[in-house]
Automatic annotation (TrEMBL):
CDD domains reported in the protein's UniProt record: NAT_SF
MF annotations from Gene Ontology: acyltransferase activity, transferring groups other than amino-acyl groups
Source organism superkingdom: Bacteria
Gene3D superfamilies cross-referenced by the UniProt entry: 3.40.630.30
Name assigned to this protein: N-acetyltransferase domain-containing protein
Domain N-acetyltransferase: 214-309
Species, as recorded: Corynebacterium tapiri
Length: 333
């Protein structure tokens, strides 16, 4: 077992290759993996959290499992998140047992530790505490349950094929949309900081407890720099009231030099501005912008809490369809 907080190109390539094989076995695609340079950038980015990888190798020094451990900072320093991959040719439970000591060493002081596990869509399975989207019962979910973890929330992972999305949109009276690609224009960076501050507390989080963790302009610029280092472009649409107050935002991220896919990152309409169709309008405007600047993108992946009916309806209107389920398994100290 090895714990790392940085990686050279060769090690990052090993992790990336294992991610590809693991995700292909579970989901049938590897879009959710990382390119080697993205893994290097991920470990270097400490703007909002510290990331580590716990690695397990077999007797022949072949990488068989990896757990990405994310230790949140700021006012959420009690939270840790774990994403793991296992070699599809190996017993996953044996790999998890090999990874567990390293994960527990990193997360031992955290009072909320959540492991994230993908599942295919199932009609009948394990139900979460929050929401109604079940996950498949497997040896891995049993292992998590045996170690004190509870399925507190599920997220619907959906895919939108860009050529199939609706194009027309209208913006409610009293609001206007601003669009840009890359770092926020200087006149809007404080507005982006305010909107990002509200995401953790305004969006559904199931049983996971997040403290209000304010963003400022410096934190926004740090996150933008992390995306630049990872060679990921970001495309923004932000809604403003007619007097210039920020009302909501959405942004997409895609790899600059590989892949024909993009990821929907944060989308939020502030609670005091809901009910005006801003969520749908912002997403449609941003999709139009994406097609202008990155016409090679064929599909967009997004994740939404299963109880977030408002956003799920919007994604359905856009043309997204569910492809898998992401389960949040939490253990509290």
């Amino acid at each position: 077992m090895q714990i790392i907080d940085h990686a050279d190109r060769a090690l990052a390539a090993e992790i990336s290759e294992l991610q590809t094989r693991s995700l292909q076995a579970v989901l049938g695609h590897a879009d959710f993996g990382h390119f080697p340079h993205e893994i290097i950038a991920l470990l270097n980015d400490t703007s909002t959290a510290q990331n580590y990888f716990v690695l397990h190798r077999d007797a022949d020094d072949v990488l068989r499992g990896a757990a990405q451990v994310t230790l949140d900072g700021g006012k959420n320093a009690h939270i840790a998140n774990v994403d793991f991959i296992t070699d599809p040719e190996c017993d996953p439970i044996a790999v998890l047992e090999a990874l567990r000591p390293g994960v527990e060493k990193l997360t031992g002081s955290r009072t909320s530790v959540t492991w994230w596990v993908y599942s295919p869509l199932v009609a009948d399975g394990l139900a979460p505490q929050s929401g109604d989207l079940p996950v498949e019962k497997t040896a891995i979910t049993q292992w998590l349950s045996d170690h004190g973890f509870t399925l507190i929330q599920t997220e619907s992972a959906s895919t939108l094929h860009v050529d199939n999305h609706r194009a027309e949109y209208t913006v409610a009276a009293g609001y206007a949309l601003k669009r840009w690609v890359g770092p926020a224009p200087e006149e809007y960076v404080d507005d982006v900081a305010l909107l990002c501050s509200r995401l953790a507390t305004d969006a559904p989080t199931g049983g996971v407890e997040f403290a209000h963790d304010p963003w400022d302009a410096e934190r926004v610029r740090s996150k933008e720099e992390a995306l630049r280092q990872a060679r990921r472009e970001h495309v923004w649409t932000v809604a403003f009231t007619e007097d210039g107050a920020p009302a909501g935002y959405t942004f997409l991220v895609y790899p600059e030099d590989g892949g024909d896919f993009a990821f929907q990152h944060g989308t939020l309409v502030l609670s005091e501005h809901r009910g005006h169709g801003l969520g749908l309008a912002m997403k449609l405007a941003n999709l139009a912008q994406l097609r202008e600047v990155a016409p090679h993108i064929k599909r967009i992946h997004t994740w939404n809490a299963s109880e977030n009916e408002w956003m799920l309806r919007i994604n359905e209107q856009l043309g997204s369809h569910p492809t898998s389920v992401l389960g949040a398994w939490e253990r509290k100290a």
